[in-house]
Write a structure and sequence with these properties.
Blueprint lengths: L1 E2 L6 H4 L2 H13 L2 E2 L1 H10 L8 H13 L3 H10 L3 H4 L19 H18 L4 H8 L1 E2 L3 E2 H11 L4 H4 L8
Parallel strand pairs: 1-2
Antiparallel strand pairs: 3-4
Helix pairs in contact: 2-4, 2-5, 4-9, 5-7, 7-9
């Protein structure tokens, strides 16, 4: 139940292991050893050497799990997620007007969390579960695609927002 690197060079040898550690957290509920987390933080930039399609598949494994919010938050906290999805960096610290109490990025993570809570509450609804587990575009489950949409639903806000009078 614990992901522990065997030596500090493992991520240099195969940078996809940076992400696979979190895939194990998401899919199997494993915890990451403290030294392993520290090394992932140090080597996070190496993920850019991995082919995009390999990264995509690991991300979709995480999104298909019931721990996507927890896992992506962990990845964000140690600096791996911005290396995996650099576009999210523009969302951090961007305030929103009106009814929002979180910045754009934290709001997007909260939307993901609320989807997972709602899905958990509906776990006994066979019809909804069959619908969400259906494989669609790109050979991914509808649930994973829904979570990706939740995560990125406001990605355009930082570039398009403007202040009109006192209204954002």
């Amino acid at each position: 139940g614990l992901v522990r690197m065997v030596n500090p060079e493992v991520f240099k040898e195969d940078p996809l292991r940076l992400l696979r550690a979190f895939t194990l957290q998401a899919t199997l509920g494993f915890k990451l050893d403290g030294q392993t987390k520290a090394q992932i933080k140090k080597d996070a930039h190496l993920i850019s050497k991995v082919a995009a399609e390999r990264i995509r598949e690991e991300i979709f494994k995480i999104l298909a799990s019931f721990r996507a919010h927890e896992t992506l938050t962990s990845m964000d906290q140690i600096g791996l997620l911005p290396n995996v999805i650099p576009q999210i960096s523009v969302m951090v610290g961007i305030s929103q007007g009106g009814y929002h109490h979180l910045d754009v990025w934290q709001h997007s993570l909260e939307v993901l969390a609320q989807i997972e809570i709602t899905i958990a509450q509906l776990r006994n609804n066979e019809r909804i579960n069959l619908y969400l587990q259906e494989t669609i575009g790109g050979n991914h489950q509808r649930l994973a695609l829904l979570k990706m949409a939740a995560l990125l639903h406001d990605i355009g806000k930082p570039e398009t927002r403007r202040l009109e009078g006192k209204r954002m």
